[in-house]
Structure formats: structure tokens, C-alpha cells
Amino acid sequence: MATAPELPCHAAATSFDAAQAVVRANCAPLGIEWVALAKAGRRILAADAVARIDSPRRDSAAMDGFAVRSQDLTSDFTRLVLRAESVAGGAVPPALLADTAIRVSTGAPMPAGADRVVMHEHARVEGGHIIVPHVSGKPHVRPRASDFAQGTALLPAGTRIDPRAMVVAAAADIEKLPVWRQPRLRVLVNGDELVPPGCAVQDCDTIPDSLSEALLLMARQWGAKPLGALRVMDRVDELRATARMALEDTDVIVIAGGASDGHRDLVRAALTPLGLRMRFAGVAMKPGKPVWYGMIGGIHVLGLPGNPTAALTTARLFLAPMICALSGAGFDHALRWSERRLLHDVPAGSDRDQFLCAVADRTSDGVIIIARQEASAQMMLARADLLVERRAGADPAAAGASVRCLPF
Ligand SMILES: Nc1nc2c(c(=O)[nH]1)N[C@H]1C(S)=C(S)[C@@H](COP(=O)(O)OP(=O)(O)OC[C@H]3O[C@@H](n4cnc5c(N)ncnc54)[C@H](O)[C@@H]3O)O[C@H]1N2
Ligand code: MOO
């Protein structure tokens, strides 16, 4: 992979598509580890999950009632001798003799010879007998392995373990699963003005760091293992020392702020001695022009612009797919674009690819682009549930036209 040319990032030398392609080409799944089922939630299967047992394990009752032989039910009110009982978790009862029945609970093993369960509300118990009407229709028996048989691949590699997949894996009697390793991720924010949320009110020269927790949360949402955020001052030595520490236990470092030209030198000065190899710096996109990406050894370093909407937009477009690629879900898993109809006219696109904060209409497939787009804005993120793509040089579009949208 070629390193990026030494251009100032305001030149935005790399197209958005080329920048995404660079990240895609550099990010392969990190490796496989075996985890207990209890820890496998949200992880991505690295191999098919195969059933270790049949389900059901035996021919079983599907209803509470009486196991009978259909051939015995010759009249409208057949009288059968009631014998043993079979319950879920109990041993297989002895074979059913002619003109007898045994009580069964849902899930209980069926006795050999029985081919039907009469639901208890359809039969009448009289002493040691039951009176059974003529029944037809569903036999209410679940044959052995009728759901799945031992050896069947139940969950294909690539499945994310959600509650539904968890049912299947547990039902297959699986105790441990092979999953892709989660990328460990640290966030570094830099800026002398930044303080932890809750502390800015005391000092009007400060502002709350609004990115650390948001970026960690986004990372977790897409499958990373966030290790925390580190806040540093705008100083090369501090930035270098903190980055050196972060390099010891992470797969991905996200650096927010200090991405544009004046500051980038600071970040580059701090990280170059640590072995940073830049892949791109400056992308023809709006917002997010200063975004950059490089590697230190095998560790991915993504630089986001400090302006919060620009930071979150570039994180959504580069970090989310990076995490998906590293964690085995695939780069495109985070890039499920869909078409929606504009509910208003929009002007022609700018000279860069634009990614606009927008609101999905709840009652239609419509979308409303938020009127004032500012890379430094924060309030609009409270309602922006979509990013709308407007390619560089796009023609003006009228209400009703379709645009590509990504859940934000
Ligand atoms: N002469 C130029 N100036 C700027 C350019 C340029 O090309 N030439 N690019 C502009 C663009 S586009 C953006 S975006 C910003 C990005 O700047 P940096 O990445 O260097 O970020 P900072 O200067 O550190 O901060 C910008 C802005 O964001 C605030 N910030 C930063 N981190 C946080 C945080 N964790 N929480 C809340 N707010 C944060 C910071 O206080 C600044 O207000 O540069 C333009 N300038
Ligand atoms: O592109 Mo900056 O990221 O617009 O504010």
C-alpha cells in the first residue's frame, strides 16, 4: 500500500471513495478466539455453529394430554385404560399397549407405539380410564430431530450472536463458540480547552469534551472493545507519550482534533517518531475534510476533525466500517445505504462529496435534510438519525427525488 503524498490536508487530495477503499484494503479480521456462550453476545461467529444433539432428542408430546394409538380410536367415545405418566425430563415410558393411554406433559417423551396426543381438554378422566372422542387433525407429536438433527450447521460463520442466535446455539448444546476477536480501541482527544463534561460550567475558557464518550459508544455499537478515552493538551510530547501508552494494548487508536493543517503538524510530529505511516490525509468530503488515516506497525490510527459533527460523520463513515472489517462482520456491514424520497427541494451539490445530517420521516419513506449544516454544530445531532449523501457536482434535486441515506 502506497503512503499518502505529503500534501496539506486542505488540499483534500483523496476522494471519499478512494479513502474508504484504502481503509477497506487495510482491515482484515484480527483473529479467532473461543468464548463461553455467556460471553458470546454480539460477537461474530468465525465458523459455522453445528448442532451437537438432535432436537427434540426423542419423539415428544407437543401438548399436555394423553398419548394414544390412533388405531384404538374406533368410535366417537373410545374408552382407554390410563396407565403410567410421562413428563418432560423423565425416562421414556414403556411401549403403549392396545386400548391404553398414558398421561403426557408438553415435551415429555412419547411411548413407543403411540402416534398421537389427545389434548387433556378434549378427553374426560373417569377413574382409571379416559373417554376420548374421535379425533383427527394434528397428532401433536414432535418427532425426534424434526427441528434439527445432530451435525446440522445451524448458524453460518459471519452470524452476529443476537438473542435469536443465542437460543439456537444453546439449543444445539454448544458451550463455547469460535468468534472473531474484537478490535480493542482507544480514543485520544486533544485540545487545551477540553474538560470532562460537568466541569466546564466553572470556567468559561473551557468547553466540555463532547466526543470521547460518543466515539467510545459508537465503537461499542459496531463491535469494538472500547478501552477508554485519554484527553491530552495540545503538546507534542504529551500527545506522543499518551499515544505510546495507547499503542501497547490497542488495535485501533482514534484521535479527535488537531486534524487540520495547523494542528496536523503537531499530531504528525508526535506520531512520526512512533512509526506512523500515513495512508491518506485530507479527503474531498464535507464535513470532514481533515480526516486522516495511518498505521503504526499493525495498529490502525484514524484522525478525526475536532468539529463534533464532522468528527461523528467521519467516524460513522470510516470508523464503523473499519471496526466491522476487523471484527469479522465485513466492511460493508456498516454501510447499508438505502433510498429515501426528499420531502423538499435541495440545491446543487458542492465541489466535495457531502454527507448531510437529516431526519427520517416516521410515516413515509421521506427524508428531511436539516437546514443549517455546520461541522461545529452539536444540537442538530439530537435529531439527525440519517446521513444523506450528495455527491460532488450533483444537480439540484426536487422534492420527491430519491437520495441515498445511511442510518447515522
Ligand atoms: N486554515 C484552516 N483552518 C481550518 C481548516 C483548514 O483546512 N484550514 N479546516 C477546518 C475544518 S474543515 C475543520 S473540521 C476543523 C478541524 O480542526 P481540527 O481537527 O484541527 O480540530 P481542532 O482545531 O482541535 O478543533 C476544532 C474545533 O472542534 C472543537 N473540538 C475539538 N475536539 C473536541 C471535543 N473532543 N469535544 C468538543 N469539541 C471539540 C474545538 O474546540 C474547536 O472548536 O478545522 C477547520 N479549520
Ligand atoms: O470539514 Mo470540517 O470537517 O467541515 O468542519
From TrEMBL:
It comes from the Bacteria. GO terms for biological process: Mo-molybdopterin cofactor biosynthetic process. Belongs to the MoeA family. Keywords: Magnesium, Metal-binding, Molybdenum, Molybdenum cofactor biosynthesis, Transferase. Its cofactor is Mg(2+). One of its GO terms (cellular component) is cytosol. CDD domains: MoeA. Its EC number is 2.10.1.1. One of its GO terms (molecular function) is molybdopterin molybdotransferase activity. This is Molybdopterin molybdenumtransferase. Catalyzes the insertion of molybdate into adenylated molybdopterin with the concomitant release of AMP. It catalyses: adenylyl-molybdopterin + molybdate = Mo-molybdopterin + AMP + H(+). Pathway: Cofactor biosynthesis; molybdopterin biosynthesis. Residues 186-325 form the MoaB/Mog domain. The keyword Zinc does not apply.
